[in-house]
Amino acid sequence: MKLILAIIRPEKLDDVKRALEDAGIYPMTVVDVRGRGEQKGITIMYRGRPITIDLIPKVELQIVVKDDDVDKVIKIITENARTGKPGDGRIFVLPIERSVRVRTGEVET
Amino acid sequence: MKLILAIIRPEKLDDVKRALEDAGIYPMTVVDVRGRGEQKGITIMYRGRPITIDLIPKVELQIVVKDDDVDKVIKIITENARTGKPGDGRIFVLPIERSVRVRTGEVET
Amino acid sequence: MKLILAIIRPEKLDDVKRALEDAGIYPMTVVDVRGRGEQKGITIMYRGRPITIDLIPKVELQIVVKDDDVDKVIKIITENARTGKPGDGRIFVLPIERSVRVRTGEVET
Amino acid sequence: MTAPTLSPGDTAWLLTASTLVMLMTVPGLAFFYAGLVRRKNVISTMMYSFLAYAIVSIIWILYAFSLAFSPYGPLHVFIGDLKFAAISPFVGVKPSTLWIGTTVPAFIYCGFQLTFAAITVAIISSAIVERTKLSAWVLFCILWLTFVYCPVAHWLWSDGWPVSVLPKIGLRPALDFAGGMVVHMSSGFSALVLAYVIGRRLGYGREPMPPHNITYVLLGMALLWFGWFGFNAGSAVAANGLAASAWLVTNTATAAAAITWCLLSWIKEGKASSLAFASGAVAGLVAITPASGFVDPLSAIVIGVVASIISYHMVEFRIKRGLDESLDAWAVHGMSGFWGSIATGLFANPKINPGNVGLIYGLIYGKPLIGALQLASQIVTSLAVLGYVVCVTFIIAKIIDKVVGWRVPAEMEYVGLDMSVHGEEGYIMR
Amino acid sequence: MTAPTLSPGDTAWLLTASTLVMLMTVPGLAFFYAGLVRRKNVISTMMYSFLAYAIVSIIWILYAFSLAFSPYGPLHVFIGDLKFAAISPFVGVKPSTLWIGTTVPAFIYCGFQLTFAAITVAIISSAIVERTKLSAWVLFCILWLTFVYCPVAHWLWSDGWPVSVLPKIGLRPALDFAGGMVVHMSSGFSALVLAYVIGRRLGYGREPMPPHNITYVLLGMALLWFGWFGFNAGSAVAANGLAASAWLVTNTATAAAAITWCLLSWIKEGKASSLAFASGAVAGLVAITPASGFVDPLSAIVIGVVASIISYHMVEFRIKRGLDESLDAWAVHGMSGFWGSIATGLFANPKINPGNVGLIYGLIYGKPLIGALQLASQIVTSLAVLGYVVCVTFIIAKIIDKVVGWRVPAEMEYVGLDMSVHGEEGYIMR
Amino acid sequence: MTAPTLSPGDTAWLLTASTLVMLMTVPGLAFFYAGLVRRKNVISTMMYSFLAYAIVSIIWILYAFSLAFSPYGPLHVFIGDLKFAAISPFVGVKPSTLWIGTTVPAFIYCGFQLTFAAITVAIISSAIVERTKLSAWVLFCILWLTFVYCPVAHWLWSDGWPVSVLPKIGLRPALDFAGGMVVHMSSGFSALVLAYVIGRRLGYGREPMPPHNITYVLLGMALLWFGWFGFNAGSAVAANGLAASAWLVTNTATAAAAITWCLLSWIKEGKASSLAFASGAVAGLVAITPASGFVDPLSAIVIGVVASIISYHMVEFRIKRGLDESLDAWAVHGMSGFWGSIATGLFANPKINPGNVGLIYGLIYGKPLIGALQLASQIVTSLAVLGYVVCVTFIIAKIIDKVVGWRVPAEMEYVGLDMSVHGEEGYIMR
Ligand SMILES: Nc1ncnc2c1ncn2[C@@H]1O[C@H](COP(=O)(O)OP(=O)(O)O)[C@@H](O)[C@H]1O
Ligand SMILES: Nc1ncnc2c1ncn2[C@@H]1O[C@H](COP(=O)(O)OP(=O)(O)O)[C@@H](O)[C@H]1O
Ligand SMILES: Nc1ncnc2c1ncn2[C@@H]1O[C@H](COP(=O)(O)OP(=O)(O)O)[C@@H](O)[C@H]1O
Q1: Among the four A36, D357, F5, F365, which has the fewest Cβ within 10 Å?
Q2: Neighbors of chain D by Cβ distance (3+ pairs < 8 Å)
Q3: Around Cβ F209, how many Cβ atoms within 10 Å?
């Protein structure tokens, strides 16, 4: 199993969620975060001065899936969270050693 | 060392925290998250129409423990966060490569 | 690539951010969390009674960097987030298997 | 009888006072209560108050004002008739001798009383938060206003037995300047009954249910305090010395009670809780309400201090009994309203309101009998109000339970009523 | 002519009413609108209202009051002159027969009217939120106040053609008690025009843009309702029976409209939305505004119910058309203001305000012609206001677009105006 | 002497004005200040204001009103006596010639003044936020009210030397219509002294300490502005032309000052900060306060603009000096209060308040000497107030430091006073 950490634009959450549902991927955990990428945030010219807003609100999805589903999930997220402009986000894949269901105590792998 | 990610019901946080304390496990980081499991959230019948509330507030515990303590912590969490109803949550175990204490800079393993 | 999870004091965020910038490390994700370390929170004497405040607001940095940069980032964070008093925080390093840029879909390693 | 003359000064004050009392419910009470519940029910809790205000506003015009304030009808010792229903036959732009406010247009006397009826109903919602169907609450508002509020208001403020019959049997007319019995005892004890009938919130006692926004509680408290000057000083129905006196004793009792409860929490629990301050302020406001047109500022201090001591212990008692009377309307409104009604019979000072003497000033000024009789009237009437309110509210509550049912399904309660009933989220702070 | 005598009672009420109306904008409207936008624009949205209030406050004193309320000047059928500019020549501590408020000091009549002008401008900001330059807004406030508000206010409330010319051509003087046309139609239709000129927010229709803080919307609604008693009952410019009547019908129509819209959302969407309640309350307040000095409480119920039905469907229509008139000032203020202005010609009851008869009471009391003429005057004047406002606002909006441009750059809009324009973050809750 | 007659109109306005001023502290100031601190101290900051209000409310009744407003006693040039302590001997339901408000019941004159005393004390809390023991604050409230507020209020508003002695030595009686010196200079300079004695917050200057909730600051500002109409127009102690004038100049100066400070931030810092607008509004309100019963609207614009310019630079100066006078009561209240007191001696216009002429209108109307003498009186009295307040506050602050200590332990400060002192969390938004 893998933990997929996907940091995306908040306004794309609904689209991504819906697309994942359509693919049969329901479970997820969502965290409200702030972030910046390589652009060092957004720089705006205002009244002739540059202003940098460096931590922009983002949403982090944490999705644990079977190894086989990783590619599918990544594909869905990239396609649905994309605007083509800087700030679209990043997806990271982490290894999971064990997964336990609290309700039953059962261990999944 | 392992990072235990446990997503539980917010109203069970106090119980879990207390049970961990009793077992000598103090350190933890708590994140407020929203999530849904395989049930796709909660579905309610209201005035004859089904309503799905899909992202329910949850609490994510992040606890880094020695490898030997992983089972104990999982056991304590499952026992104390359980209600037996859908939505009780999930526990994931991730490998940690290094752990550093900011105050001293010392590396633990 | 590695995911560096650094839990630090919120009031040190600006210093750490600035120091990382100076070292050329821009990208990061920031999560507002609460936590306690081995001290079980802060204990205060108030009107003769001990009071324990157990979950203190912290900030969690999530920074994904090339393997070579890990030591540098850890050093910068420890140096700039340190006050020398309990509660300075912890840094954990986790392995990343894959990293995808949403905007382009390109996979980094 | 010559037509009474309109006083612009009195009218100005009544217009203002009515507006102030309106603010107590919309949004005063709404914020006070909404701050005390969990985040997932903030909208729902506010909507109970808002809907109560809106529903009472309409019904008041249609028939409730007439039921409560018409001095006519066969049962006029108990309740008015429908002579002024739909208030169309009576053109209210002129003052009328039918009501206490003979120098103000009847329309604003009607409006002023409307705001009292509305807040009384809204207070009761504190007992049902986080678990109750909206339809049940709407139904309750209508029935309770009709069968509980109208009679009790009629008793004390129109031609009811406590003012018309008691004097005939040798007692004094019962005093309730601004609603210690009519508003606070009736709503507080009704809240207790509802809490009993509806039952506890899921997880009550097992899970923490801390107030999600104390700043809203404090905002609500402040707006209540602010509006209460209209409530009490407005009840003089004139801009005169009595209104001024009511203003000052209201502030005094409230401050004394707020400090007292805050001190109790400081001493007993080691923390000077702001919620303690807020609860104390409300207890003080409630307790001075019936007395505010009769007592002097020093007595107001005593009334406030005792109110907080009583209500503080009633909260403890309520919790010990495991009753989820969720926001303590009974302990604060019911019991401090009770205390204030009795205290009126103790501290009424004839230098403030000539002719009205409580036991203590009766002893001082050599009229102990009149004072004792006043106290007796206060006790008798309070107990009658208490008994009537508890019985009728219980019947209404049970009927509603049978007909529509009070509780939402468990999943709705778990998710929170904001999402499940209103389809809304209070705050989206991300 | 003898100098009019100051009435302390009337003055007390006008001082209070002006203060209440001030609160409607600062912070009533500011919170209402700020709660409806996304978190990243909460400060920005409030600042539009606050700046509108502050700018109007200064300009009003300098020349706008004179333009609107001077009965002199060559164009006095259309607009006043600058005789009272800078209000220095006229010392306002005494009452003046020039204005309706002959028993109150001219200064407070000027101040009362100031608060109306300010809120009218502020309402328009609802159409431009989350995407507009501050400089464009500041410019708009000045131009719109001068070229739209001053003439329209002059028409109805000073010596304009709807009151001075219409009677001469056989119609009745147009009635607008507290600003159905002057305040609500003018701001509502101007909002529509601005929304059209400025265009939609980025992502509108594609991304969810839920209100970030419904509790602020409800707080704003409550403060509007509260302050509106000053708005409508204050428009009697005296503490008299008419003020009392206006108070009561205002409350009645508002309650009826709030319940109606809430019911519509319950029935049609399955949820009793609190935003529906709030929108209904505002629609009711708007609709009763022009009628509040003329109609009785039962008519007020009808006016409120119909207002919500109309505005509810106008919101739907607006959304279907894909127009980002962001916070629905047009649907609520514009259309309910229109309805209320017409309704005044239907429901005016001479028992409330002698001499003023709408069509319905005209039929009842045997004066159908007068009633019909009144209705005609209402329709003619409403349409004239509508036409004038739309045209002039369009011109102003286009000029500003050319000169400074309305929209901020896309990145600023994305980041939010709080950070990019004001350099501030509304809440730092971490 | 015949007993004065009660005026219902004046009484209605005083009842309203007192209620409005109460709202300025509870919750106006509380929200203004609480929004400016960090989230972890939101409750604590509010509680300083609430407790100040409650404590002053009680002490005022017990003895402070008498000390401040009794014209009797051996030291009556400096302070009153205890003749009216516990206000029991004087029955306040009737007007009294002892005080300026001869047409209103003495009780409400006492209540009106109470609200002034309370807000003055509460303003000082802005200097001690986020680091101070509750017990020290409670003690300070009592001592400061007694030894600073009562004398200074007596000087200007009862029988003190600036009104009784200055005329005898050839100067004019000092003018302070609504409290430029009594309220704002005294609280502002006391805040400076306290900040100096208590010292900086931990991490001040090294860590960012941004305001956690700007919407609360704006809400607080709005409620202050709203309530200030009661503060200034109420200080006429009648519903007359002077009250109307005070209403209008208050609004004008405030708007001018808000725009000015906002512009300064726009020009100098590139952002039109909403906090700048709010600070400007308060500076304008403060500056017009002493002048509000004397100046015309055009002068009010000047007073407002200059107030913002002064206070803006004083904030910069304070920051440069590294002083943690945390919420700038000194820069805003102290310095704009000073400016307003001087400005009264410049701009007083006899057309507004007959007999009172400032230097500028003295020159215009050919009475330069009277104007100059007025200005001299304003300067002398302001400086005396400043000197007295600074010295006595310093002594009180030092005594409290010795007896109970001002600062909480460092860990409590780190965790925040909400959790550590009050055991509460302001918001639980999860
Ligand atoms: N190396 C990283 N480590 C942690 N978070 C990152 C990293 N790179 C990006 N992010 C997160 O992703 C968000 C979007 O990244 P960004 O670099 O702007 O996207 P892109 O450059 O691919 O368009 C950032 O705001 C941040 O939260
Ligand atoms: N595969 C997953 N990936 C990420 N988070 C998950 C996953 N499964 C569950 N969660 C988290 O756990 C919470 C509870 O899960 P749920 O499936 O409802 O519990 P269960 O089915 O075991 O009763 C969810 O709200 C979500 O936050
Ligand atoms: N074992 C752990 N697992 C998860 N989080 C931890 C752990 N230890 C510390 N933390 C996080 O780091 C924060 C600071 O830790 P603390 O132990 O107080 O620092 P130190 O002891 O190094 O001074 C805690 O509040 C918590 O959020």
Answers
A1: F5
A2: A, B, C, E, F
A3: 17
